[in-house]
Amino acid sequence: QQQQQQPGPVGLELALVSRDGSAKRQWADEADVLRRLLHVTPSHLFRRVRRLHASATLPLPHKSTTPADLQGIRVEEEYFLAGQSAAALQSQAAAFGSVQVLLGLHGAGLSSMVYMSPPGLVLEVFGHGHVNQVFEVLSQRLGHTYGAFRPHEDTAYVHSVANSACWVPISSACKNMDVKFHDIGLVEQWIVHHVRQFSAWQQEHRAP
After folding, report:
1. At a CB cut-off of 8 Å and minimum separation 6, what does 6 contact?
2. Is the pTM here over 0.90, yes or no?
3. Which of 7, 96, 135, 193 is spaced 20 to 30 Å from 123 by Cα?
4. Gyration radius of the chain over CA positions
């Protein structure tokens, strides 16, 4: 009797909430992390990768894509309308409704996980000394898996901030910083580890 063919791996949709622009915190190499990530992950892991930007006004800027990487996947640059108006909420729901893996530096953009269908994966990047559990609690309440990257200040990143109090752990001054990683590979390994686990869990619990 011929064996039934097993279903192939499930490709995930990953979105990074960008903090470029006027945000108090910047992830200086977030675009590089996304592009490099596609070169170190198995080809089946992601079916779509997007970098989502908040826009204060309508109409939204045109979408664009980066050149395809070696696996043929492009990083799509898209925009959603920020704010609490009906139009903004509809824009956010449309942008995040299909996302399965949400990645970003700590900030209000991660609250868009409310539009994701559970179970999803939320990956939050912090700067040194900045501790805030609001998105961890929210993700758990929504039925998402959560992971946090908290780099050690002398090995993982550099930052520029006017207030030296940022060196004090759990200081609110640490919110306002630029994060740039000395070794992007550290972030890549962390992302791949969580995504692999999440993908394996999805395949295990996928309906036949």
Report:
1. none
2. no
3. 7
4. 18
